[in-house]
Automatic annotation (TrEMBL):
Domain SUEL-type lectin: 746-828
Catalytically driven reaction(s): Hydrolysis of terminal non-reducing beta-D-galactose residues in beta-D-galactosides
Tagged with keyword Isomerase: no
UniProt protein name: Beta-galactosidase
Signal sequence bounds: 1-19
InterPro entries listed in its UniProt record: BetaGal_gal-bd (IPR048913), Galactose-bd-like_sf (IPR008979), GH (IPR017853), GHD (IPR041392), Gly_Hdrlase_35_cat (IPR031330), Glyco_hydro_35_CS (IPR019801), Glycoside_Hdrlase_35 (IPR001944), Lectin_gal-bd_dom (IPR000922)
Domain of life according to the entry: Eukaryota
Enzyme class: hydrolase
Subcellular localization(s) per the UniProt record: Secreted, Extracellular space, Apoplast
Biological process terms in GO annotation: carbohydrate metabolic process
Main localisation: secreted
Residue intervals passing through the bilayer: none
Length: 828
């Protein structure tokens, strides 16, 4: 459509008047059945999730830059309500909660943004993002049609929208935000809430409330396939979304969460989703007319503080994402997807405008041909997980490996196959701190947690003749809630103290002495504690400390899942089976939090009296605070602290929380620990079926210490609160860097690139250049059929360099080698 020049000028003037000086040009966002239409152009968009509170502001520019270099157009994030509004109308938009700064960094990088407000977000985040104080509001029912919930949800949603408007962050204002999301995965639970009418009214209210915000870009709802309100786009989440289509015909196919891996729990090994399988899923999605897809996660990051959900989600939220927890490029996943993105983007016009035709070439084989403007582009997929297939297309035969997609931008030449990785593999390792020798170099001191205050039932916040639920009693301001009572007893006697609790862990004290502890198994909540105890004549005190490890974040009515000794019972059972005492309805005194939390011992204030007897500290002592001073590792590589040897607790560096630690929890053995074949559907629920690592090892041993937490030229302080009792003196700081890098090339003419990363580490040796590698994995290849010529060429080109590229020439070929594939391994 031709716009008269005068009108165009007028529009420009109007826009300039509404936008602040310095803001970018306004962007229009519309959509049709094929794509989002941005500034009048249909677009293929590739997005990735980076959650701002899971890294530091200092990391954001680098993460976003790497995402852009990886071929992404947009960054997507949830908004974290309980992080922003920890108490009613008391807000936190500082540090890693500075959401506007995060969106400005996206804008500075020239990328688009997707704002997923929720504000229920799931996200393996504590309580799914909802503030626990909501429960104090009378009449409150979460995520159903009721005034208290809708009022609070609208209040927070409006606050975020207004912050974004004030900063000109929406596309129409010249900002990066092209889409916004309201609610989250509601379709998964709405039928299970036993109140379908209210659920339906609620989801329609959400859409109306959102549309009233007048943000100028479309609203999306993910996993909302039934009962989709008008004026919202419903989208898909999952490992695969090619067979899914949106509910209405006038909206594009959008994939909000393509899970790049999976999160980790304290008792589970590490999940890995292969680069081949994600590339397969993404290629299939675009083959089947996808228009916008988002990687969940592109960078997973760290659950600092008490933010992990679950319960039992680890502090690491690495997710096996293309950028690792520390922000390093994960190869080959990052590079393989980058190659895919560039092929898909080269076909953008034909994918969003072209006519298309899916043709079956037999069972499990589909060829899709897009045609537009006289040219054509093809996808060929092979969905068999056990056989390679030759497909003849336009006279040429293409071998399509099992569980893969080939993309032919001209329907003749294969530009990409999802199962053929041309990117190097990097093996990241933890290197010792070169500044000081550890663990010997760390200077330790300690302080006991003051438990005496809680060893009677005298001082507390309040008393009640019942055992209360923990989340509603303590409003989740601490992991810990004390339950204390006393009883008069005639004479001495032995009993079993029996406590039935809804989780997540418990410590029991009788007359000031720790008598037992227990915790729930992952996936279960209710458990029991049974401890032998002795009572003396007269008054006896029973103190129970209940602890949570991250609140549930998912499921129908997840918010009502109790924690703590809700209802008990708590009993003293006579050792002869009779004469028990039921304490369930005794007078219980309540107090939330530990003395050390009130004193903020983690801040290491000057008045604190840390003890050190000639450098020796007590070990295996429950409820102990430890402090160590250390020099920050030199350089720019990511820093971690190795907490092997510790039990369970929380860690801080220079007052900044590293999160909960629990290295004494060992990851279970599962069938998927011992097989890793990318072919076939990836699964993570239950036991996960393939490519698990870390089985039988501490589920999380290393804890991220962002560089921003460290002071380069002065001593740094590590504070640990050890709850279970352990030996901290083995703790040590490490840097994370590429150890070995490996690459393979199939044919002469292929370029082989090796890189140690950006932080100045150079390739120190080329260890393998062979045509016979069939055993081992990168870093531990067992060669065979070595090519001396290739080894010489790589050694000459690579040693001493951060990165090098060598072309595979016919001169390298070893006589009599079975494989024509050249594999190279180097050490950084
Ligand atoms: C949110 O609630 C506070 C009072 O609690 C009120 O002052 C404020 O105006 C509300 N915001 C919106 C957008 O309704
Ligand atoms: C609510 O709807 C779901 C299907 O959407 C159905 O399975 C369920 O039985 C319904 N529940 C009630 C209480 O009507
Ligand atoms: C969406 O799809 C479901 C089943 O696929 C159907 O029952 C429903 O009527 C569709 N439309 C809307 C607007 O929900
Ligand atoms: C789709 O492609 C097949 C095979 O090339 C052809 O037979 C068929 O006519 C095409 N259908 C349309 C609608 O173009
Ligand atoms: C398609 O492949 C899958 C995985 O190999 C297999 O289970 C399925 O039976 C195949 N479908 C057909 C129709 O052969
Ligand atoms: C594919 O075709 C090639 C060349 O004709 C042949 O060597 C190969 O065995 C075929 N592979 C399969 C899986 O059919
Ligand atoms: C333990 O508590 C749970 C949750 O309140 C309850 O369902 C269960 O019946 C209790 N078990 C015993 C043995 O009292
Ligand atoms: C811990 O809880 C589990 C599950 O309830 C139970 O089997 C075990 O005996 C308990 N251990 C102690 C010491 O109470
Ligand atoms: C059983 O033990 C309880 C306390 O341990 C005691 O009060 C009671 O007298 C004992 N009963 C018998 C029959 O021994
Ligand atoms: C505790 O109080 C509740 C509620 O009053 C009652 O139902 C229960 O029977 C009492 N339990 C005991 C052991 O007295
Ligand atoms: C302090 O420890 C060192 C080495 O552990 C030891 O040689 C020295 O005698 C100790 N000094 C005292 C006063 O205990
Ligand atoms: C929408 C979608 O594809 N959901 C899938 C997400 O992945 C899980 C696990 O593989 C499937 O069970 C869901 O169907």
């Amino acid at each position: 459509m031709a716009v008269p020049l005068a009108l165009l000028l007028l529009l420009v003037v109007l826009r300039a008047a509404t936008a602040d000086a310095g803001a970018g040009a306004a962007t229009t966002v519309a959509y049709n059945d094929r794509a989002l239409v941005i500034n009048g152009e249909r677009r293929i968009l590739i997005s990735g999730s980076i959650h701002y509170p899971r890294s530091t502001p200092e990391m954001w520019p680098d993460l976003i830059k790497k995402a852009k270099e990886g071929g992404l157009d947009a960054i997507e994030t949830y908004v974290f309500w309980n992080g922003h509004e920890p108490r009613p109308r008391q807000y936190n938009f500082e540090g890693n909660y500075d959401i506007v700064r995060f969106f400005k960094e996206i804008q500075n990088a020239g990328m688009y943004a997707i704002l997923r407000i929720g504000p229920y977000i799931c996200g393996e985040w504590n309580y799914g993002g909802l503030p626990a104080w909501l429960r104090d509001i009378p009449g409150m029912q979460f995520r159903l049609h009721n005034e208290p919930f809708e009022r609070e949800m609208e209040n927070f949603t409006t606050l975020i929208v207004n912050k974004m408007k004030d900063a000109n962050m929406f596309a129409g204002q010249g900002g990066p935000i092209i889409l916004a999301q309201i609610e989250n995965e509601y379709g998964n639970i709405m039928g299970k809430l036993n109140n379908n009418e209210s659920a339906s009214q609620y989801i329609h209210w959400c859409a109306d409330m959102a549309n009233k915000q007048n943000i100028g870009v479309p609203w999306i709802m993910c996993q909302q396939d039934d009962d989709v309100p008008p004026h919202v786009i419903n989208t898909c989440n999952g490992f695969y979304c090619h067979d899914w289509f949106p509910n209405r015909t006038d909206i594009p196919k959008i994939w909000t969460e393509n899970w790049t891996g999976w999160f980790k729990a304290w008792d589970k090994p590490d999940f890995h989703r292969s680069a081949e399988d994600i590339a397969f899923a993404v290629a299939m999605f675009f083959q089947k007319r996808g228009s916008l897809q988002n990687y969940y996660m592109y960078h997973g990051g760290t659950n600092f503080g008490r933010t992990s959900g679950g319960p039992y989600i680890t502090t690491s939220y690495d997710y096996d994402a293309p950028l690792d927890e520390y922000g390093n490029i994960r190869q080959p996943k990052y590079g393989h997807l980058k190659n895919l993105h560039s092929v898909i983007k080269s076909m953008e016009k034909i994918l969003v405008h072209g006519e298309y035709n899916d043709t079956s070439y037999g069972k499990n084989i589909t060829v899709t041909k897009f045609t537009f403007d006289g040219s054509s582009a093809c996808f060929i997929n092979n969905q068999f997980d056990d056989r390679d297939i030759n497909v003849t297309l336009g006279g040429a035969t293409h071998l399509i490996p099992a569980w893969s997609v080939s993309i032919l931008p001209d329907c003749k030449t294969v530009a990409f196959n999802s199962a053929k990785i041309k990117t190097q593999t990097s093996v990241m390792v933890k290197k010792p701190n070169t500044v000081e020798k550890e663990p010997e170099g760390l200077k330790w001191s300690w302080m006991p947690e003051n438990l005496q205050l809680f060893m009677t039932d005298e001082r507390g916040s309040f008393k009640k003749n019942e055992l209360l639920e923990q989340i509603s009693t303590g409003t989740d301001q601490s992991d810990y809630l004390w339950y204390r009572t006393s009883l008069e007893h005639k004479g001495e006697a032995s009993y079993t103290l029996y406590v039935n609790t809804t989780g997540h862990e418990i410590y029991a004290f009788v007359n000031g002495k720790l008598v037992g502890q227990n915790h729930s198994a992952n996936g279960e909540f209710v458990f029991q504690l049974e401890s032998p105890v002795s009572l003396h004549s007269g008054k006896n005190y029973i103190s129970l400390l209940s602890g949570t490890v991250g609140l549930k974040n998912y499921g129908a009515l997840f918010e009502l899942m109790p924690a703590g000794i809700a209802g008990g019972p708590v009993k003293l059972i006579g050792t002869n089976g009779t004469g028990g005492i039921d304490l369930t309805n005794s007078s219980w005194t309540y107090m939330s939090g530990l003395a050390g939390e009130y004193r903020q011992i983690h801040l290491d204030k000057p008045e604190y009296r840390w003890q050190s007897h000639n450098g020796s500290i007590p070990v295996n002592r429950p409820f102990t605070w430890y402090k160590a001073t250390f020099d920050a590792p030199a350089g720019e590589e990511a820093v971690v602290v190795d907490l092997l040897g510790l039990g369970k607790g929380a860690a801080w560096v220079n007052g900044n929380s590293l999160g909960r630690y629990w290295p004494s929890y060992t990851a279970s053995e599962m069938p998927g620990c011992h097989v890793c074949d990318y072919r076939g559907k990836f699964k993570a629920e239950g036991d996960g079926i393939r490519c698990l690592t870390g089985c039988g090892e501490p589920s999380q041993r290393y804890y991220h210490v962002p560089r921003a937490f460290l002071r380069p030229a002065q001593p740094n302080t590590l504070v640990l609160f050890e709850e279970a009792g352990s030996d901290p003196t083995r703790a040590a700081f490490r840097t994370v860097a590429a150890g070995a890098v490996c690459a393979a090339a199939a044919e002469p003419g292929d370029d082989v690139t090796l890189s140690c990363g950006r932080h100045g580490r150079a390739i120190s040796s080329v260890d393998v250049a062979s045509f016979g590698v069939s055993r081992g994995s990168c870093g531990a290849y067992e060669g065979g059929c070595e090519s001396k010529a290739a080894l010489r060429a790589f050694t000459a080109a690579c040693v001493g360099k951060e990165a090098c590229t060598v072309r595979y020439t016919a001169a390298f070929a070893g006589a009599g080698c079975e494989s024509g594939v050249l594999t190279v391994q180097a050490t950084c």
